[in-house]
Structures are given as structure tokens and as C-alpha cells.
Amino acid sequence: MAKNFRRIGVLTSGGDAPGMNAAVRAVTRAAIDKGVEVVGIYEGYKGLIHDNMKVFKDTDVSNIINIAGTALYSDRCLEFKTEEGMQKAIATCRENQIDGIVAIGGDGTFRGATDLSVRGIPTIGIPGTIDNDITSTDYSIGYDTAMNTVVECVDRLRDTCESHARLNVIEVMGRNAGYIALNTGIACGATAIVLKEIAFDEEAAIADIIAAKKKGKRNFIVIVAEGAVPVDEKDYSEKLTKRIEAKTGIECKFCRLAHVVRGGNPTLRDRVLASQMGAAAVDLLLEGKSNLVVCVRDDKLTSMEITHALKLDRMYKGTLKEGDLDGYSAETIAEMQAFCDKKLDAMKKLYETARAISVH
Ligand code: ADP
């Protein structure tokens, strides 16, 4: 309970995402409101190992709710994955009287959070990644902002495509997840969307483009998720652009939006989500909970045990490891499978809708 907590540490780790700052602010203010001190840990787990941190007053997180990136900085810290590094991190926590940690990041960050939890440092994860590739939550912090940035960029490309009767292939981030590509594809009126999760019929897409051109359509948008790019096929999107041009006779351009999508002021949705998740993470720690990831499902704030969430993730991505489901009842496995199937079905339905409402 709160009286046993002296200090909560907060860190951001892995890839940055707009809204991380809003989460740091919420953790800080919510903890101080409950009479608990907060330590801002710089550069993710690296700062925990090397004792790079600062006790925060509530005003130390002023003027960051609207800014992307992370004021606590981030780092991909390999040392933290070693037992030696982990022990150094735990020693830093003890020396600084840190009784619990809120770790904001993606699945790598959560694996680190579990490692801390099982070694006696209660840790709660908050999903902060533009990719929305955390299976246990419907939304992660930064996803909404990233999609809105893609929409703004693609709308601009579309303007010029219309003038010149061109097609633009646009590759967007999302790691192995196609959420950004699918949703922005719909929002930008894409003629074709290429995802890893759903087989892409290139010939059918080209036939659709030719049919739409015959009806007088002048601008064409094709969105490719970076995860759809085969690992052994360098420049897949550029080559796809050339193939479409050769087969349709339409002038085709290629654009990779890349990291531009990671910046920009967080949207209202990301700021509110980050604020809610930050406050919820503090509540969970003060309730004595550990090794949980804060999630939002069906518009309700909830949480899931991280170890379970990571297995659910692997089930969804088809990367389950030997022994992952040992000890799980047949009923639990069926529930996990149903959860994953529901997610994928929703994606397939949206993909079908995207094609149905495009000119073809
Ligand atoms: P993300 O959190 O966005 O998935 P990473 O995969 O880079 O980003 O993970 C962020 C950090 O979390 C890593 O740099 C490392 O310090 C820590 N981490 C990742 N995987 C593990 C692991 N298996 N055990 C302990 N810590 C890990």
C-alpha cells in the first residue's frame, strides 16, 4: 500500500512514441498526489544501470504533455539483458530507495519489466509504441498520432497525384504489424494496401488500378506496411512501384515516410490515453501489484500479467516458443486463440471494406 512506497521510478525505453511524455507526466503527478515520490530515470534501462536519474517535483513535468519524443530519452540497452546488468539495475533501485517502476515502451521493455519484477522490484508496463503491436491492448500510446501524421502526409501526396495523374506507393512504419497501414489506407482512400497479416494479390490490385483509370480516376495511393516487406527482398516497395508502372502505364512515385511518423505533437486521443494509463499504473503499484501491463480493451482500462501478454503476443504473431503454453489449461489456450482470432478477423473485415469502397 501507499505507506510502504517511498519512491516510484519512471522510464521510457525502446522506440519513442508521441504521448510518452504525457504518460511520464501522469505517472509523476498521480504518484505525488498520493504522497509518493517520483524519480525520472533517463535513457531507459541504461539510466537504471548507471544511476542516471532525478527526483521529480510536479513542476518538473510541466510543458511536456504536448511534445513528442521523450524528455526522459530512450535507449536500447543490451547490458540490461545480462544478469550482471540486471543486478546493477536492482542495486541502483535499492540505493535510491525505488520501491517500484513504471516502464513505458514496447514488448522488449516489458520483457525487462518482468525481469525486474521477478527479482523483487515491482514493475508495471505501459504500452508506448506507434506500431500498436501489443496484442493485449487495443491501443498503444503514439499509434493515433502516427496514423494522423501518415494521413496528413498522404493527403499531400494525393493532391499532387491528382494534378499529374500519378500513383504513389507509400511505405509506412509499424514493424511487423499492419495496423497503421490498414487504417491510414482506408482514411486516405488507398486503392491497394499491402500487409503482412493478409495475403496480397498483386495482379488483382493492378487490375483494380487499370479498371479505376478507365473510369477516369487520376490519383492512386498504394500503402505498404514495412512489415509486409519480405526480409530477403531488398527494396520490395520500390520494385512494386516499378512493376505497377510497367503494367498500368501510370506514372508511379515511391515514398517511404519512415521516422517522420514518430514525431509531431501527440493527438488528443494519445494524450488522454497516456494520462489514463499513467495514473492507472501508479494505482496498480500502490495496490501492491507487479508484472502487469496496462491495457485498454473495448474502451475499458484494464491490465494483464506481462508474462501472459507476451505469450498472447507470440500466439497472435505465430512465434510461440517450445514450452510457452506448458501448464496452461485447454480452456485458457482456447480463450487465447479466440482472442487472437477475433483480432485478426477484425483486421480482415476492415481489409475487405477497404477494397469494397475503392473504385475498381
Ligand atoms: P521496445 O520496448 O520498443 O520493444 P526494445 O525491444 O528495443 O524496444 O526493448 C527496449 C529495451 O528493453 C532493450 O534495450 C533492453 O534494455 C530491454 N529488453 C529487451 N528485451 C529484453 C529481455 N529479453 N530481457 C531484459 N530486457 C530486455
* % residues in beta strands: 15-25%
Number of strands: 11
Distance between the termini: 60 Å
From the spread of the alpha carbons, the general shape counts as elongated
Give me the CATH architecture of the largest domain, please: 3-Layer(aba) Sandwich
The whole-number mean of residue pLDDT values reads: 96
Q: Determine the number of helices (DSSP H or I, runs of at least 4 residues).
A: 11
CATH topology of the largest domain: Rossmann fold
Largest beta sheet, briefly?
7 strands, mixed
CATH class category of the largest domain: Alpha Beta
Poorly predicted regions are none
**Helix/strand order:** EHEHEHEHEHEHEHEHEHEEHH
Which structural class is indicated by helix and strand composition?
alpha/beta
Overall number of domains = 2
Radius of gyration: 22 Å
Helix content: 40-55%
